[in-house]
Amino acid sequence: MKIWAVANQKGGVGKTTTSVALAGLLADVGKRVLIVDLDPHGSMTSYFGYNPDNLERTGFELFQHGGQVPDGLAAQLLQKTSHPRIALLPASTALATLERQTPGKSGLGLVISKTLAQLWNDFDHVLIDSPPLLGVLMVNALAACQQLVVPVQTEFLAVQGLERMVHTLTMINRSRRQALPYLIVPTLFDRRSQASLSTLKLLRDRHKEHIWPAYIPTDGRLRDASRAGLVPSQFDPGCRGVIAYRALLKSLLARQPGQPA
Ligand SMILES: Nc1ncnc2c1ncn2[C@@H]1O[C@H](COP(=O)(O)OP(=O)(O)O)[C@@H](O)[C@H]1O
Ligand SMILES: [Mg+2]
Question: Which residue range or ranges hold the AAA domain (predicted)?
Fold first, then answer.
């Protein structure tokens, strides 16, 4: 099972869109995909038509057992999506209450790792949509994943958010056996915008080794897909956004040598 997290300590940079687009492309080629919504806003949960304010059972339950995950609980929480091969572990807005706890003290840092261990044979690939705050949930996402995708909107304010995220990673990597590989992905790129062009250049200068050499363009079809509750590749397989995400997926898969896609 491959586990990737999508994170950035800033909202509106394309985390949810990236998670759903990559999940869709993997599912299209026959992979059994699990998407995990760890953002208390529950955007990914809403994307597929569930209301994070009133779902009876959500990922929140996983954190109610002192850091252990009771046998079989993970599977009970899964929901269907509009794609037959994508299952959703939905978020609840109640997840926000976890963010106030100190990750080290709570003993809750490995809840998602334990959850995924229970589902190891049921899925080929997992994508975790992370919250924009460094708290228990982000720590869980980073501890559970094998690779991190960091979408960054190509506008000036987003660059600061990226620096924060890279700093967080440096801290987290001190307590990991192996440094977590990450790929910075420029998003919402608009060729006609001076801000987009200069931010892209700045990102490439500062993060040479970790930046994906291409970018995800601004494409209204991605927004339309979310409105329709469909993964972008089902909604419009030929649109520019999907073409870019297909190239991104290829790069991400190539970064884990020795494992079959
Ligand atoms: N490449 C893109 N082109 C056009 N709209 C996009 C693109 N990526 C994201 N969006 C839209 O921008 C908004 C924020 O994106 P989202 O993925 O929800 O960001 P985050 O999860 O980081 O908060 C959403 O309305 C989404 O549909
Ligand atoms: Mg989001």
Answer: 1-180
